[in-house]
Amino acid sequence: MIVLKVLAIIAIVLVVLFFLTLVIYFFNLDMKFAASLIKPLTAYYNWSKNRREAKKHKQEEQKE
């Protein structure tokens, strides 16, 4: 009896995941999400680049 309940739960989870992937595919949500991430990822990249350059510049000053 417990095995049937476990199998039913697994089947329900698989069906829900399948329909979720269909919705994501149908509305192209993955690309919309990726497009919305461009601005914050670019800002983070620029911030970390500036931090690395400042650290490198500081090390060069200390060597002199």
Low-confidence stretches: none
CA distance, first residue to last residue: 77 Å
Q: What structural category characterises the helix and strand content?
A: mainly alpha
SSE topology string: HH
What is the count of helical runs?
2
Largest sheet: none
Beta-strand share of residues: under 5%
Average pLDDT, rounded to a whole number, is 94
Would you report the number of β strands? 0
Describe the structure.
The protein is mostly helical. It has one domain (1-63). It is 94% helix and 0% strand. The chain is elongated. 0% of the residues are buried. The mean pLDDT is 94.
In terms of topology, how is this protein built?
Layout: H1 2-26, H2 29-63
Transmembrane segments: 6-27
Keywords: Membrane, Transmembrane, Transmembrane helix
Give the key terms.
single chain, 64 residues, mainly alpha, 94% helix, elongated, transmembrane helix, membrane, transmembrane
In brief, what are we looking at here?
This protein is an all-alpha fold and 64 residues long. Helices cover 94% and strands 0% of the residues.
